[in-house]
Amino acid sequence: MGSSKTSTEVTDNSNSSSSTQTETDNHISVPPYAEGEKVLANHSDCLYEAKVRKVEYNHKGWQFLVHYLGWKKSWDEWVDMDRLMKHTEENMRKKHALEEKHGNDKNAKVPRGSLAKSKSTNVSRGRKRRNESVIKRKPAVDPDKLVNIQIPPTLKKQLVDDCEFITHLGKLVKLPRTPNVNDILKNYFDYRLKKCGPMADSVEEIMKGLCCYFDKVLPVMLLYKNERQQYQEACPANVFPSAVYGAEHLLRLFVKLPELLFHASIEEETLIELQAHLLDFLRFLQKNQSAFFLSTYHVAEHIENSTNKQVD
Predict the structure, then answer these.
(1) Could you give phi then psi for residue 86, rounded to 5 degrees?
(2) Could you give the angle at the alpha carbon of 309 between the alpha carbons of 308 and 311, nearest 5°?
(3) Chain centroid to CA 301: how far?
(4) Cβ–Cβ contacts within 10 Å for residue 227, how many?
(5) Separation between Cα atoms, residue 259 and residue 289, nearest integer Å
(6) What dihedral angle (degrees, nearest 10) is formed by the CA atoms of 100, 101, 105, 109?
(7) Is 271 in a helix, a strand, or coil?
């Protein structure tokens, strides 16, 4: 009949369909990244070195369980293929370029997982909610269960003087600080790189973690009450505290770190290694105390104006 297909047409269509199916099957059967492969993973708009732990294929496509090198296992996560890159020299250059941008570009994006800050009058309220949702206050824990981060005596005195300047004398750290937290962390990494060479890779990841902690907890845990207005003015939308604040506030983070690390549930072996790096970083701060810390703070403008009005 006229509607019947010839044997040749049927065969050709069958071959074409079979070929297409074979290509699809081959595409599914060969993942772009293998288990155990070292890759670069995109997280919070930065690239991190990671290792593929598991590979699965489902209705969403290829899924990869990655472990971020130098980070605890609780950070392991399943990611899509579009968040991974091959670990090549060219991609490593992209990684370093992104790190430099996020460290120095005031217009850098807010990390994924935190809300983009509105330009409306609700900016400060939104920022507060955002940070409180990230770092929730935890109940007090047994001090014996906390990692011991021994702050050197001269830095303890720095903390006491810092408190005196802010709470009793009504003074503030003049912002922006030079060097800022990003600068100090980079200086320490360069120092370790010169001293240890390639072995400093884990130090780089720890410094990134410190920076991340600092940016998230500063508005929630590291400011005295009379510093909050200054924070709102110094850190508008898309400006990270680590690009504005310096050693004075970074040192305050180390007072809070034992409890923060306790709630992070880090494995004991990793925690011991981390503790050693943190103590070494504190010794680095102590060694460079005169270069990193202010010797005097300045009087806040609203206090100075109030004093002048009283004199008049």
Answers:
(1) -65, 145
(2) 65
(3) 32
(4) 20
(5) 25
(6) -130
(7) helix
Q: Tell me if 240 sits within 8 A of 215, measured CB to CB.
A: yes
- Residue 167 corresponds to which tokens in the numbers above? 């709470």
Residue 56, phi then psi, degrees to nearest 5: -140, 155
Pair of tokens at residue 306: 């109030």
212, 222, 163, 148: CA torsion to nearest 10? -60
CA distance 262 to 240: 25
What tokens appear for 36 in the block? 């155990």
Would you state the structure tokens that stand for residue 81, as one six-digit string? 């293929």
241 within 8 A of 219, measured Cβ to Cβ = yes
pLDDT tens per residue, range 171-212: 999 999 999 999 999 999 999 988 877 666 788 889 999 999
* Of 191, 199, 207, nearest in space to 288 by CA: 191
Q: Assign 278 to helix, strand or coil.
A: helix
Residue 238 near residue 107, CB atoms below 8 Å? yes
Q: How far apart are alpha carbons 287 and 293 in whole angstroms?
A: 11
- Cα separation of 193 and 187, whole Å? 10
Q: How far apart are CA 87 and CA 134, in angstroms?
A: 30
**Half-sphere exposure of 311 toward its Cβ, with a 13 Å CA cutoff?**
6
| Contact assessment for residue 69 and residue 51, using Cβ atoms and an 8 Å cutoff | yes
pLDDT per residue over 45-99, tens digit each? 788 889 999 999 888 889 999 998 877 777 888 999 999 999 999 998 888 887 7
Q: Which residues of 125-145 are buried (b: 16+ CB within 10 A; e: fewer)?
A: eebeebbeebbeeeeeeeeee
- Token readout for 13 is 């269509």
- Which segments of the chain does DSSP mark as H helices, in order? 7-29, 89-104, 123-134, 153-163, 181-196, 201-221, 228-234, 247-263, 268-287, 289-292, 301-311
The whole-angstrom separation of Cα 183 and Cα 246 is: 9
Dihedral (CA of 119, 128, 292, 272) sign: negative
Largest alpha-carbon pair distance within the chain? 110
